[in-house]
Amino acid sequence: MPTVSRWMIRASLVYLLAGFIIGAAILISKAYPSYSSVWSLLPIHIEMSIFGWIIQLTMGTAYWILPRYLKGTARGNPTTARIMVIIFNAGILVNVFSFMNILPSTAIVLGRLLEVLAVILFIALHWQRAVSYNK
Amino acid sequence: MPRLARAFVKTGLVCFMLSLLLGLFMAFQWLPLPGMEPLFWHLLMVGWITQIIFGVSMWMFPGRNRSEGFWVQKWGWFTYILLNTGLLLRVVAEPLNYLSESPVWNLLIILSACSQAAAAVTYTVELWPRIQSKQQRREQRKKKRKRRKADRQKPNRERTN
Fold this sequence. Notes:
heterodimer, A: mainly alpha, B: mainly alpha, Cytochrome C and Quinol oxidase polypeptide I (chain A), transmembrane helix (chain A), Cyt_c_oxase-like_su1_sf (chain A), membrane (chain A), transmembrane (chain A)
């Protein structure tokens, strides 16, 4: 498994844990409405569970498992792939900090932009790899 | 396909069907119960998507223990039981908690929340050591081979002594 995939899959597991723990706290607050302040964590739960866990694990596994190039570097430019991981996780974290009011709410635009940039890099890295070498 | 992966995929398919049926019931307002929307989303995202990811990754990621059995694959089975118990408890307790003030539903909701969070922990325990580079995988195999060799030589040594 390449380094980039290992980074993404490990990060996705961390987000899975965080997302599920926050989700559990929100679910418990349904039984005890006096703890309803945890409902403010709902957007963080969604961001971590969808982008951090599901999408990141899918991207990391695709980078590992899709057909490799027969010539040159097996999975395209590794620096681009590393930048993709950093940008994608920066996007998630910017959004999370913004939902926590550590960053202003307008920072969500920056977070989403970073995620879009990472997806563009992901597509650029994988477009040519969606191929069959069978004749 | 190992038994554990089959259990995850088949249960995932059932949850997929249930979530879509629930969505349909909600659209036609055939099920006028409160709290149906979060149930729909969680059956879809946890019951279907997360469950199929869990099953396929435990099957496809390197380092799988090929022998079948509960204790050999204990973290995988714990994940399966905890995740589905948590989901089932939620499906039962969440709507009933809105309708009745019995503390039993509160308790079931807490159990459901803890069970699903525990499933995330057991899944991480199973998968984390299996996220390896080719080099790490080779070294692990070498160590396993050495251990097996030593285990095989042990009875011989005991016999000669």
